[in-house]
Design brief:
The protein has five helices and nine strands. With about 180 residues, the chain is of the alpha/beta class. The longest helix is centred in the middle third of the chain and has 10 residues. The termini are far apart. GO terms for molecular function: nucleotidyltransferase activity.
Length: about 180
């Protein structure tokens, strides 16, 4: 039996705990683009659903639940595992999984990530899946997380799921990895 594509997001996990090695360790989530911190942009795109932010606590304009992976610095899959453990929703819920350094994310980006299987990810203009711009069925995410999530890639963990790939519009996949990414 095929389910209908999901149109709403019930919750979100935002990964905001990276070490920003290419940025000399600066807190990327709080860097500003057009005067708005990156983490605030991501939270605005998600809207008023329950949000779990994985990383150190920072001042944000929305109510969020904070958590950390143990030990800190275990990589994105470990961060996702910690975030999912803090999500209090049924397994049928739809959850956005996002990086905190997305400069081009909007609510309309997330609205386009509809799916009929386990989830959907944005695909950049080079054809690469952007695993930290996705919307997923919570039960599928939880089932995919390995018992030892440390230092695993999201592609290796989520790539085997039934994923809808949605082409990105110009600018939607923009993230901040280096100082040059902040320049217009």
């Amino acid at each position: 039996m095929t389910s209908q594509p999901h149109q709403t997001i019930d919750g979100a996990v935002v990964l905001a705990g990276g070490q920003a090695r290419r940025m000399s360790g600066v807190d990327k989530a709080m860097l500003t683009v057009d005067g708005i911190p990156l983490l605030h942009r991501v939270l605005a795109a998600v809207g008023a659903v329950p949000v779990v932010v994985v990383g150190p606590e920072r001042p944000v304009p929305a109510a969020v639940r904070w958590t950390r992976e143990e030990p800190a610095g275990g990589g994105p899959v470990a961060g996702l595992a910690a975030g999912l453990a803090a999500v209090d929703l049924p397994s049928t819920a739809t959850v956005a999984v996002l990086a905190a350094d997305l400069a081009g994310i909007t609510s309309s980006t997330l609205a386009r990530l509809c799916f009929d299987g386990d989830g959907a990810v944005l695909v950049d203009e080079d054809g690469r899946e952007q695993w930290l711009i996705g919307v997923w069925r919570l039960g599928a995410l939880r089932a995919a997380i390995p018992a030892q999530p440390r230092d695993r890639s999201l592609r290796s963990v989520l790539g085997g799921l039934d994923v809808t790939r949605v082409p990105a519009r110009p600018g939607e996949c923009v993230d901040v990895d280096t100082p040059a990414d902040l320049r217009p």
